[in-house]
Amino acid sequence: MAEADLAPYGHASWTQRLFEAVAVRPLWVGLGGAALLVAAYLAQEWLLGRFSELSATPVWAGAWKDFRLALVNILMLVYAPTAQQYVIRGARRALEDLRPALDMSGPELGAFARQVGIYEPWRLRIAGALGVSVALILPLFAASAELDPPYDASLWTPEVFWHRWTTPVIGWFMGRFLFAVIEESGRMAALAERLKPIDLFDLRPLAPFTAQGLRHALLITGFVAIFALFLLEWGYAAMVGSVAGSTAVFAAIGLILPVRGAHRRIRAAKRAELDACRDALRRARRESVLDDDAGLGRVADLLVYERRLEAVRVWPFDTSTLARFALYLLIPVGSWLGGALVERAIDSLLE
Asked: How far is CA 79 from the centre of its chain?
């Protein structure tokens, strides 16, 4: 892999440049953006006199439902570009952590690092457009879609207006976020080809690949955790189910994609070592005789070594990795249960 082959292509998106221009963590940038959007939303409600109408409406009625769902949409809108920044920063951190295990020169490593977060604009736009298409279809799965068509502008209240304009924007950013997951995973997998010889009995140097995969899974389930708040309202079970049902698939893909290159290297090293061990075992058995204790000991040692090699896992995962992944999949359930408890507490206070 020549340095010229690692030259950056495309450019950083405007959202990435915005996040990197602010000298704080992406979390704080995202929270700041959410605060601005919520302030704009509340200012609209106040200017239109919506709070007086809402105060005369039961908290479970449609007006309050639309008010709450607009806030959920704002959270999802801000989450997607923020999560993309954590994918990019995680890839950079993984590259730095892998530095001792890589057979790459300083200039090569620097060129590879400059690729992180750089994408071809047309591919990024296609990913965003696909996200918009999915986002515009999802409201049709709501139970009220037939009686209350989501795209009949004559039925829109000021709160629903916020649903409608934020939905395609959420889809745009989510499509780009998932594209970043796929793109950075592909680069991580390619990076495995430049690893130094692997010690099959110590896979700890490969931990950054697994860490990036877990990061992807966590960020994907984090979005679904916010989306699951729709379940606090009536009529959205099918819509949420259509997204949450695929969470495990997308999270598993996010976990596996970055480590598949390391998996290939481990599998190849294991196969080569097993072949060498079995060749040595055949030679030792031919050369030893029954009364040759040294020869028989050599055979016994090789048999033990062969069993240990066979026990080496070909994926850089351990039990703790799988346990953490399983816990990540439960995050959306915890989000829904927590939201339900909060809603129940508020209802009790207002009764």
From this structure: 12
Whether the predicted pLDDT of 291 surpasses 80: no
Q: Write down the residue that tokens 């801000």 correspond to.
A: 78
Written in H, E and C, the secondary structure of 96-153 is HHHHHHECCCHHHHHHHHHHCCCECHHHHHHHHHHHHHHHHHHHHHCCCCCCCCCCCH
Residue 126 has pLDDT above 70, yes or no: yes
Neighbours of 249 (CB within 10 A): 10
Say if CB 82 and CB 31 are below 8 A apart: no
List phi, psi (to 5°) of 119: -135, 155
3-class DSSP assignment, residue 49 = coil
CB 229 within 8 A of CB 72: yes
* Those residues with Cβ within 8 angstroms of residue 307's Cβ, 6 or more apart along the chain or in another chain: none
pLDDT for res 170? 96
Condensed to tens digits (0 to 9), the pLDDT of residues 239-248 reads 666 666 677 7
Closest alpha carbon to 25 in 87, 77, 78, 86: 86
This prediction has a pTM of 0.85
The pLDDT score that the predictor gives to residue 130 is 96
Q: What is the mean pLDDT of the chain?
A: 84
Residue 83 corresponds to which tokens in the numbers above? 């999560």
Q: Distance (Å, rounded) from C-alpha 269 to C-alpha 256?
A: 19
Which of these, 341, 348, 274, 276, lies nearest to 314 by C-alpha position?
274
Task: Confirm if 249 and 325 have CB atoms less than 8 A apart.
Answer: no
Residues in the chain: 351
